[in-house]
Specification:
With 419 residues, the chain is mainly alpha-helical. The protein is built from 16 helices and 5 strands. A 3-stranded antiparallel sheet has the order 1-2-3, covered by helices on one side. Strands 4-5 form a two-stranded antiparallel sheet. Helix 6 runs antiparallel to helix 7. It is rod-shaped.
Length: 419
């Protein structure tokens, strides 16, 4: 056995010891009264006495003793009218010492045990703030050691708020933030479902408009980052169009309209790329079909002008009839002969084994197609955004596209609770 094995075992045991004391049993001894087993904090004979003891310990700065006393009150006098207050105090002390994960669990226990408690709304507010910390990068702690930020933990926290406090004022925004957490995990289908749930469950809440906008944004982001999918592009435009129709007075309407224009430009660029592919591979009939689609989709654009020029060049080279994809006309005489010659020319250069002169390219300077849509910035820092892009809901106003962050805890944290 390795010489370091006993040392590792002792280290793990020391780390786990506080956790075992948290769940210690409350027992009665004739000479000591009620006590928490493995602890020297006696439990008073009534909830009121225990509350006074816990509050006195907290006032004196003994957070560890106060924490144990509040927990003992909840365990011994769980049906007392003071139990909800003690349960909240457990969460508050854990939050004070930056043990956010356990603090959230303590607050969540308040919601499930005491749904009629007078501090219900205050507890939900505390839970929401902790969940926001995780959403914005707070690191989880394992055996007291900070590890990587967990979007899954943030997602679970917000889902817990929605489940246990569905009618609270923060429930709609919590549901929206479920979508945010999923979006940061790049799980776009589930993020869209989460956003859709906002305006389905809470259609009259102001955040419903933000959720519908975000559906369009996520779809557009998916269409831009993945392989081009016309259906995804179309759904993104439809979501933005739905948004502008439902919320014409929203501050995000201007950005939604710009996104729609950018999405249409992206579609047009893809059609042009297809046309160029057929042109390069000498499938000129197909190329002309797609060049015409470009002209129809966005007349007057640089892409449309390029398409017009290329069609004219192909007509001059091979003749209009040779490029027509429709049914042939009834022709006789010289016209039919000329058409057959031109068609033969097209067919010849279209052969895969053709080794003749290359196809003449259009001698014309063409502007590049529009850039990818400039949408809201996301956690992976996609780049600059238009100045009109409004901030996400639920925070103070920040520069365009930025998420408001809760101040991080000080580097020198207070002593941990002896749990």
């Amino acid at each position: 056995m390795s010489k370091t094995a006993p040392l590792v075992a002792l280290t793990l045991l020391s780390l786990l010891m506080p956790l075992s004391q948290v769940n210690a049993a409350v027992v009665y001894r004739s000479d000591e009264g009620w006590t928490v087993e493995g602890d020297d904090t006696a439990v008073a004979g009534s909830a009121a006495e225990q509350m006074k003891k816990a509050e006195k310990l907290e006032a004196s700065g003994n957070d560890s003793g106060a924490y144990k006393s509040y927990k003992a009150l909840v365990k011994r006098f769980g049906q007392s009218f003071l139990a909800p207050k003690a349960q909240r105090k457990v969460g508050m002390l854990l939050e004070k010492h930056h043990d956010y994960d356990k603090a959230f669990y303590a607050y969540n226990s308040y919601l499930t045990k005491y749904p009629q408690g007078e501090d219900f709304d205050a507890v939900v507010d505390s839970m929401f703030k902790i969940a926001k910390l995780f959403l914005e990068g707070q690191k989880r702690k394992v055996f007291g050691v900070p590890v990587g930020p967990s979007m899954q933990r943030a997602q679970a926290m917000f889902e817990s708020i929605v489940k246990n406090a569905p009618f609270s004022k923060l429930a709609p925004l919590s549901q929206f933030n479920v979508g945010q957490a999923l979006e940061k995990q790049n799980d776009y289908p589930k993020a869209i479902e989460a956003y859709q749930a906002v305006y389905t469950k809470y259609p009259n809440d102001p955040v419903a408009a933000d959720a519908l906008y975000q559906v369009g944004y996520v779809r557009a982001k998916d269409a831009r980052e993945g392989s081009y999918d016309p259906a995804t592009n179309r759904k993104a435009r439809e979501a933005f169009e739905d948004f502008t129709a439902r919320y014409p007075n929203s501050e995000k309407v201007a950005q939604a309209n710009e996104n729609i224009r950018n999405l249409e430009g992206g579609t047009n660029k893809n059609i042009l790329d297809i046309a160029k592919f057929y042109d390069k591979t000498r499938k000129f009939k197909s190329a002309v079909i797609y060049y015409n689609d470009v002209i129809k989709a966005q007349p007057g654009s640089p892409e449309a002008e390029y398409a017009k020029g290329r069609i004219e060049a192909l007509k001059n080279e091979y003749g209009e009839d040779a490029l027509r994809a429709g049914p042939e006309r009834t022709e006789t005489g010289n016209r039919a002969l000329e058409r057959r010659k031109l068609q033969a020319k097209v067919d010849t250069v279209s052969r895969p084994d053709y080794v003749g002169p290359p196809v003449a390219e259009l001698k014309q300077k063409v502007e590049t197609a529009p850039a990818k849509p400039k949408l809201r910035t996301s956690p992976d820092n996609l780049g600059p955004v238009p100045a009109v892009e409004p901030p996400l809901p639920g925070g103070e106003t920040k520069p365009a596209g930025t998420l408001p962050l809760t101040p991080a805890p000080p580097e020198s944290e207070p002593p941990k609770l002896n749990q």
